[in-house]
Design a protein that fits this description.
Caprin; 130 residues; mainly alpha; Caprin-1_dimer; CAPR2 protein; single chain; 5 helices; signaling receptor binding
Length: 130
C-alpha cells in the first residue's frame, strides 16, 4: 500500500512511471478495498477462534466435573459396601443373620463366615481416636 501511495504521489508530481507502475496506481482503490476486507476477515477469524477456545475450555470444565462426580459416586458406593460389610463383624448383627430375625435374612453359618472374612480383608479397622 505504501509503495502504491508513493507511485500515486510521483504521478501527481508529474514524474513518468513505467507501465507496471501505472497499472498498479490504477488498481490502488481495489488494493485498499482488498486490504480492508482482509482485515475484517482476520477479525472475524480471530473472534471465531476465541469463541472456539472458550467452548473448548467450557467443555473441559464440564468433562472434569463429570469425572469428579463419577469418582464421587464410586467412592460413595465403596463406602456404602464397606459400611455394610463392617456391620457383619458386629456380634449382634451376626446373631440376627444366623437366626433370620430383626429384618435380617437367614444366612447359613458358612456363608456368614465368608462375609465376615471378606469384611475383615476389605475393610480397614478404624482408629476411633482420629
Amino acid at each position: 500500500q505504501l509503495k502504491l501511495e508513493d507511485y500515486k504521489d510521483r504521478l501527481k508530481k508529474g514524474e513518468a512511471l513505467n507501465q507496471d507502475q501505472l497499472e498498479a496506481v490504477e488498481k490502488y482503490d481495489e488494493v485498499v478495498h482488498n486490504l480492508e476486507f482482509a482485515k475484517e476477515l482476520q477479525k472475524t477469524f480471530s473472534g471465531l477462534s476465541q469463541d472456539l477456545l472458550k467452548a473448548q475450555r467450557k467443555a473441559q470444565r464440564r468433562e472434569s466435573l463429570l469425572k469428579l462426580e463419577a469418582e464421587k459416586k464410586k467412592l460413595r458406593t465403596i463406602l456404602q459396601v464397606q459400611y455394610v460389610l463392617q456391620n457383619f463383624t458386629q456380634e449382634h448383627v451376626q446373631k440376627d443373620f444366623k437366626g433370620g430375625v430383626n429384618g435380617a435374612i437367614f444366612l447359613p453359618s458358612k456363608e456368614l463366615d465368608y462375609l465376615i472374612r471378606f469384611a475383615k480383608l476389605t475393610c480397614p479397622e478404624r482408629n476411633e481416636n482420629l
